[in-house]
Design goal:
Layout: H1 2-20, E1 29-33, E2 38-40, E3 56-61, E4 67-72, E5 75-76, E6 89-90, H2 93-97, E7 103-105, E8 114-122, E9 125-136, E10 143-148, E11 152-161, E12 166-171, E13 180-184, E14 192-201, E15 206-215, E16 220-230, E17 236-238, H3 242-273, H4 302-306
Parallel strand pairs: 1-9
Antiparallel strand pairs: 2-7, 3-4, 3-8, 4-5, 6-7, 8-9, 10-11, 11-14, 12-15, 13-14, 15-16, 16-17
Pfam families: C2-set_3 (PF22705), V-set (PF07686)
Main location: membrane
GO biological process, one term: T cell receptor signaling pathway
């Protein structure tokens, strides 16, 4: 009877100890933002005295068991670390002793999105917990490009970010417009490249549109109104496209100046070739009066008048 009671006590004690050991994550879903490090949280019940003896912590991907980081024998063990995570992970030993097995991951990109497992094995027991990592990047300021044709107008916005955004074009009455959308990437910078455009047929003298981009992952909303005024000769003017009209005006002014200089130079050399003094040559600032001679062509040179 005594032996049976002892066995029952041992089993109950062992079961309660194992049940008390738990590995947990504070957030099951973690969002990583481009350009910032991310911390994958993980905690467990520490041993007495916060000792690291017998503690083994491993972070790995849930899908294919790639090792991000390992800790045992009281130090980091990176021999089995996958190459894609090399020099990008770190854990704090003081925090490990206190039951914090969180992992810091630097230079996060879209390829890091996925499920990760935090596995802990200690003298008190073992366990694991899973965390979902998602990646996002704020979209850049949209760049507007406008093309005006005799029968239609095309407006295009370009921007970069992550993940795929929600794009909406509306007219002045709030009605949705049919838009074309191109999404490519991500590139090495971890960004998707977005091109979205609308084409308006017979737009009339004035057009008012609104472009809206939403990045739901980051709660980012970019809304840009577009106002167009068209002249009768189908030359468009847009409040957002002064970068197009100003260089055009500057080019026309420069072309006109060069034309005037060319005409002045042509007149100067023509007079010089015909032997006629210029205003600078006679010192008076004025050309001498022209006195037709008796020649058949009515032309008299300077030498003939002096004779």
């Amino acid at each position: 009877m005594f032996l049976l009671a002892t066995v029952c006590f041992v089993l109950r004690f062992t079961g309660s100890s194992l049940a008390a050991f738990e590995v947990s994550v504070p957030q099951r879903r973690v969002l990583a933002v481009r350009g910032r490090p991310v911390v994958l949280g993980c905690s467990y019940a520490p041993s007495l005295g916060n000792s690291l003896d017998g503690l083994v912590v491993t972070w790995q991907t849930a899908e294919d068991n790639l090792v991000l980081h390992s800790f045992y024998y009281g130090q980091d063990q990176l021999a089995l670390q996958n190459a894609r995570y090399r020099n990008r992970t770190s854990m704090s030993q003081p925090l490990l002793g206190a039951g914090n097995a969180s992992l810091r991951l630097d230079r996060v990109g879209p390829q890091d999105s996925g499920r990760y497992l935090c596995s802990v094995d200690s003298l008190l027991g073992n366990g694991k917990a899973e965390v979902q990592l998602e990646y996002a990047a704020f979209y850049t300021e949209p760049k507007l490009n406008i093309q005006v044709h005799p029968s239609n107008i095309s407006l295009q916005y370009q921007s970069e970010g992550y993940p795929a955004p929600q794009v909406q074009w509306t007219d002045s009455a709030g009605r949705n417009l049919t838009a074309r959308e191109e999404l490519s990437g991500p590139g090495e910078d971890g960004l998707l490249s977005l091109r979205t455009s609308v084409t308006l047929k017979d737009p009339g003298p004035g057009v008012n549109l609104s472009f809206t981009l939403r990045n739901a992952a980051l709660g980012q909303v970019l809304e840009r109104p577009v106002s167009l005024r068209l002249a009768s000769d189908d030359i468009g003017h847009c409040t957002d496209c002064t970068r197009v009209t100003i260089p055009l005006i500057s080019f026309l002014c420069l072309l006109l100046l060069l034309l005037c200089l060319g005409l002045a130079a042509f007149a100067y050399f023509r007079r010089k070739r015909n032997g006629m003094p210029t205003a600078c040559q006679n010192g008076s600032g004025k050309l001498p009066p022209h006195d037709p001679g008796e020649g058949g062509d009515g032309t008299e040179t300077v030498d003939q008048r002096q004779a």
